[in-house]
Design a protein that fits this description.
This protein has 286 residues and is an all-alpha fold. It has helices at 2-32, 39-55, 62-83, 90-112, 135-157, 159-169, 171-176, 181-203, 214-227, 233-254, 259-278; strands at 125-128, 131-134. The protein has a two-stranded antiparallel ribbon. A hairpin with a 2-residue loop joins strand 1 (125-128) and strand 2.
Length: 286
């Protein structure tokens, strides 16, 4: 029983990281209709910079904030390139983000090399229900809960958040009332970058990061986000937690070789169900 409790809690910690990546995807897609395939790269960049800053002697907290700030800056740069030009279609922007994600590989290998990196997190072990859990997993869960609460307040209780929500609901109406949709899109990319960066700095102490770790992050983040149709952050949170717990339980009882397959099966199942509910796509009139 204690093994199951341990798997559930560590799964929630890993799933919280997926949920942060997924929420960044949702924040960007809601406003711009762009699926950002560079989202996992924000987490990798933030984690690699944090490891460098800690190695240079900066204290915890400052180094992690530096990593998140780099993630936000990378998000803004990707946004400028992807949607900065007027009338860029979401499909074109998607390809641009994919290309920038590949470009990030070369930059990361050039600066940090291709060896895995990590850094220490919260030390110690907590005992829950007879299971001994590394305390850092509890930090990941707590920080993610606070971040989602702040996002709820931001999008519903501030003018800037309501402007982003207006763009997500109806871009044309938002433009009519004077909201700069392009600027809101860049803000969404910046928020997405910060959320991805936060996922990277939180999970690296329990999962080593390399230049190509973004593949695992984007697969799992997209699987969580697609549960809510890439538009609902709360469903993305639930999807990320479900994914993390399922993968951890599968790894615990059946081996860790099938974790990515769990995400792919979940994503395909949701997409097939959604396609069945919406029915066939009508043919374009010739």
């Amino acid at each position: 029983m204690s093994d199951l409790i341990g798997y559930l809690i560590t799964g929630l910690g890993i799933g919280a990281g997926f949920a942060l990546v997924a929420s960044g995807l949702v924040a960007i897609h809601r406003v711009t209709r762009v699926v950002n395939f560079a989202q996992g790269g924000f987490a990798v960049l933030a984690a690699l910079l944090t490891s460098t800053l800690l190695s240079a002697g900066l204290p915890h907290g400052v180094a992690e904030l530096g990593g998140v700030a780099l993630g936000a800056l990378a998000g803004l740069i990707v946004g400028v390139v992807a949607i900065g030009r007027p009338d860029t279609s979401p499909g074109t922007s998607l390809i641009v983000t994919l290309g920038l994600g590949v470009l990030a590989y070369a930059i990361e290998v050039l600066i940090w090399g291709d060896q895995p990196r990590s850094f220490p997190g919260v030390p110690g072990v907590a005992e829950v229900g007879g299971a001994r859990i590394p305390a850092h997993y509890l930090l990941i869960i707590a920080v993610t809960a606070v971040v989602f609460a702040l996002m709820t307040w931001f999008f519903g209780g501030t003018d800037l958040g309501r402007a982003l929500t207006a763009c997500a609901s109806n871009r044309y109406a938002a433009q009519v009332v004077g909201i700069d949709v392009r600027r809101m899109g860049l803000l969404a990319f910046t928020i997405g970058g910060a959320l991805g960066g936060l996922a990277g700095v939180l999970t690296t102490p329990v999962q080593q990061v390399t230049f190509d770790s973004d593949v695992t992050l984007i697969v799992n983040g997209f699987a969580a986000a697609v549960l809510g149709g890439l538009t609902r952050p709360t469903i993305a949170l639930a999807g990320g937690l479900l994914l993390g717990v399922t993968q951890t339980v599968v790894a615990g009882y059946g081996g860790g070789a099938y974790q990515t397959e769990v995400a792919l099966v979940l994503m395909l199942t949701v997409m097939i169900v959604q396609a069945a509910r919406t029915g066939p796509v009508p043919e374009t009139a010739r």
